[in-house]
Amino acid sequence: MRRKRRDHNGRQRTLWPQKELGLYSRSAWVSLAVKSLRLGWPAGLRQAAPHLTKSYLQDVLICGLLEDVFPPESEIGDAVDEVVRLDYDALCIRETHHGRGYTERFCNMETVATKAARQEAVLLRGHARALGFWLPRRSLNCFYTWTHIAPDDPGQRRTADTAPWTAMPTAVLDHHTKEGKKAKRDRTIISGDYDCHRELGILVAEHGWEYVRDSVHRTEGANGNGQAP
Q1: Please, are residues 96 and 178 in contact by the beta-carbon 8 Å criterion?
Q2: 157 near 151, Cβ under 8 Å?
Q3: Burial level of 181, CB count in 10 A (0-12/13-18/19+)?
């Protein structure tokens, strides 16, 4: 049964129980949305969307906007508009910090950003509102990092991952998902832990996004039981 609550902006949210939604748990579909934006994979986002409420998916994408896309402040308004419209194609061609040289600085701020998320939440949310968007709780640390690094490199784009949907990649089903915990699978090549971001930045710099995407897509079709990179 769904429950309702109000978020910090007064908007009503639907709380989904942790259950199977089709073949996979809700956490798996959330993970697919997060990691599809990280990869720049519109087909993955379109596959995840029917399994999540629109407002929850928008929250997930705002988190990804700050954790991965990391746009310059001059582009944050346009990027948030793309989230609101669920414009997956436009979001997926935005180059992330992994391909723009910000990842090491992003990861080096882990301790101070995590502390700020706990102690400065009201201030951070007020700053975001002044910029015209909302902050889900999980994005507070990344927003703090974004405001302090202040990326200033407009126009940075990448090619989208044009792979069609075939099956859930095992690389998506990491320790953030019910399936990953059951399989005792920890981190994968596209997990969002700080150490994983650092490693992903190195891979993208040395081999490019196609190498990463091919590694992920090779894990498709194993129903969560295959080996993840």
Answers
A1: no
A2: no
A3: middle
Count up the domains in the chain and report the number. Answer: 1
Is 76 among the domain residues? yes
pLDDT tens, position by position, 88-101: 999 999 999 999 99
Instruction: Please name the residues in contact with 19: beta carbons below 8 A apart, sequence gap of 6 or more.
Output: 25, 26
Q: Give 170-203 pLDDT, tens digit per residue.
A: 999 999 899 999 988 889 999 999 999 999 999 9
Q: Range of 193's domain?
A: 21-217
